[in-house]
Every structure is written in structure tokens, then in C-alpha cells.
């Protein structure tokens, strides 16, 4: 990986001599993930991406990515609950995605985008302590951080449509 400074003082990364998956793993490995609920979501995304890339390695992925020092038991537990919920309800989530995303089946959606949507659906449908608007906002942020330039809009559109169709109403108002 080569990192250049651009004229605006920001950092611009060019990935050289890596395949797509190697490049993604390199970028993810460099990130410092906070011990927050957002950090638990980030780790859950990484674990699920690992599992999708190497089926059968879920426990290894959880041990390596979620078991790091500095993680509270609460955050490790949230990561595990999210991962388990997505694995357990994947078919249900994929049916919702397929029925909502017109002209897009889950096998045509970018792997990362599908995982982000499944994570949000896990929260929306099975985590009563997380308001729907928070789940959607967090999914959009994950899509912005890890997906393509268009990922966040696609993720937001699919999730908004599912929330509207199911009558899920956010308990968080504007500015809260």
C-alpha cells in the first residue's frame, strides 16, 4: 500500500499490488476501532465479512476481531449478539431485501452492502433497545466508511423502504 498526501493536506491511499480482498483486509487491520456501540457494529461487520469470505471460520473471526484487549464485556457481547442474529435470520433478512430492492437480488448486491443491511435489519427487528433511526443512521455510516461511493444511498433507501413498509417508527426525533 502506498499513501500519498494530497494538496489539501488530507491523506489519499492508493492500493498497489493487492487483490481486492487483500486490500480490504489491510485497510481494516490498520483501523483503530473504538470500544463503543459503533465499534461493536464495525467489528460485527468485519466478522460477517470474514465469514462470508471464508465460511466456517466464524469463531476464529470473532476471537481475533472481537476479543482484543480494551474491549468491554458489554461491547464484545453486543458484537456477538449482532453476528449471531444476522447468521440466524439471514434468510429472513434476504427475503426482506429481495422484496424491497427492486431489480436487485441479494446475490447481485455488493457483499459488504448486503452485510450492512442485514446488520441494520437485525437491530431493527430484534434489538428493541435501539431506535430504528439510530440503526439506519449507523448502517449509513458503516456504508460510507467501508462501501463504495454509492453504498450509503443504496443502504439508506432499502432500509427506509423496509421501515416504512413494516410501520416501524423511530423514537428519536430531529436534533435528539
In short:
By secondary structure, the chain is mainly alpha-helical.
N-to-C series of helices and strands? EEHHHHHHHH
In total, how many beta strands?
Answer: 2
Q: Mean of the pLDDT scores?
A: 79
CATH fold call: N-utilizing Substance Protein B Homolog, Chain A
Which stretches are low in confidence, meaning pLDDT under 50 for 5 or more residues running? 1-20, 171-176
The fraction of residues assigned to DSSP E strands is under 5%
> Span between N and C termini?
40 Å
Helix proportion: 55-70%
What does the model show?
- By secondary structure, the chain is mainly alpha-helical.
- It has a single domain (19-166), classed as NusB-like (N-utilizing Substance Protein B Homolog, Chain A, Orthogonal Bundle).
- It has 8 helices and 2 strands; from the N terminus they run E-E-H-H-H-H-H-H-H-H.
- It has helices at 20-30, 37-53, 58-66, 73-88, 90-100, 111-126, 132-146, 151-166; strands at residues 2-5, 11-14.
- A two-stranded antiparallel sheet has the order 1-2.
- Helix 2 (37-53) runs antiparallel to helix 3, helix 5 (90-100) packs across helix 6 and helix 7 (132-146) runs antiparallel to helix 8 (151-166).
- The longest helix has 17 residues, at 37-53.
- The protein is globular.
- The chain starts with a strand and ends in a 10-residue tail after the last helix.
Amino acid at each position: 500500500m502506498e499513501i500519498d498526501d494530497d494538496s489539501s493536506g488530507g491523506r489519499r491511499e492508493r492500493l498497489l499490488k493487492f487483490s481486492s480482498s487483500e486490500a480490504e483486509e489491510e485497510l481494516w487491520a490498520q483501523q483503530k476501532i473504538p470500544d463503543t456501540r459503533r465499534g461493536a457494529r464495525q467489528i460485527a461487520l468485519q466478522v460477517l465479512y470474514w465469514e462470508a469470505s471464508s465460511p466456517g471460520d466464524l469463531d476464529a473471526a470473532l476471537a481475533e476481531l472481537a476479543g482484543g484487549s480494551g474491549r468491554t464485556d458489554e461491547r464484545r457481547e453486543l458484537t456477538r449478539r449482532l453476528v449471531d442474529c444476522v447468521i440466524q435470520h439471514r434468510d429472513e433478512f434476504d427475503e426482506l431485501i429481495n422484496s424491497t430492492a427492486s431489480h436487485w437480488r441479494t446475490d447481485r448486491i455488493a457483499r459488504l452492502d448486503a452485510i450492512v443491511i442485514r446488520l441494520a435489519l437485525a437491530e431493527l427487528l430484534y434489538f428493541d433497545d435501539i431506535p430504528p433511526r439510530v440503526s439506519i443512521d449507523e448502517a449509513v455510516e458503516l456504508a460510507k466508511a467501508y462501501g463504495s461511493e454509492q453504498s450509503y444511498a443504496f443502504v439508506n433507501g432499502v432500509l427506509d423502504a423496509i421501515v416504512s413498509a413494516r410501520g416501524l417508527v423511530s423514537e428519536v426525533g430531529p436534533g435528539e
